[in-house]
Amino acid sequence: MNYFEYHFSGDISGTKLRANATAKSDGLFTGARNAVELVQCDIAGEEVFLTFKQTADELGGFAKFKLLLYKDDQIVGTRDGHFDVYAKNLNGKGATDVADITVYETDFNRVEVIIEP
């Protein structure tokens, strides 16, 4: 897999961590890295509309995005999404689609989007 999540029970500030991993080629991870870009983001109340554009011929099998929700300069929440769930019309280079994400019970006024390959 190309996604890892680490949890530490103590304070690790100042620690230098080095991952030692080698990617293996298999049939699950086809597609280009960084094959999607955000072209527009609109906020309407509790809904966030993200317009994505596919910039390569194939998406990676686990391509996803993360939303960071801000109130002024403070992060107040996050949301995750996979392109195969939220953007079903991304079906080739140049295609666009709008992901409609409802964010309940979070007071935010700005969104940052991180696109992960």
Give your account of this protein's structure.
Helix content is 3%, strand content 41%. A hairpin with a 2-residue loop joins strand 1 and strand 2 (47-54). The model has no long low-confidence stretch (mean pLDDT 79). The strands form two sheets. A three-stranded antiparallel sheet has the order 1-2-5, with no helix packed on it. It is flat. The protein starts with 35 loop residues before the first strand and ends with a strand. It contains one helix and six strands. With 117 residues, the chain is mainly β.
List the helices and strands and how they pair.
Layout: E1 36-44, E2 47-54, E3 64-71, E4 74-82, H1 83-86, E5 96-102, E6 110-116
Antiparallel strand pairs: 1-2, 2-5, 3-4, 3-6
What's the total count of β strands? Answer: 6
Low-pLDDT residue spans: none
Shape: flat
- SSE order: EEEEHEE
**Which strand order spans the largest sheet, edge to edge or round the barrel?**
1-2-5
Q: How confident is the prediction overall: mean pLDDT?
A: 79
Class per helix and strand makeup: mainly beta
Biggest sheet: strands, sense, closure?
3 strands, antiparallel
Q: What is the CA–CA distance across the termini?
A: 12 Å
The helicity comes to under 10%
Radius of gyration using CA atoms only = 17 Å
Number of helices: 1
Percentage of β-strand residues: 35-45%
Outline of this structure?
Helix content is 3%, strand content 41%.
Q: What descriptors fit this protein?
A:
single chain; 117 residues; mainly beta; 3-stranded antiparallel β-sheet; 1 helix
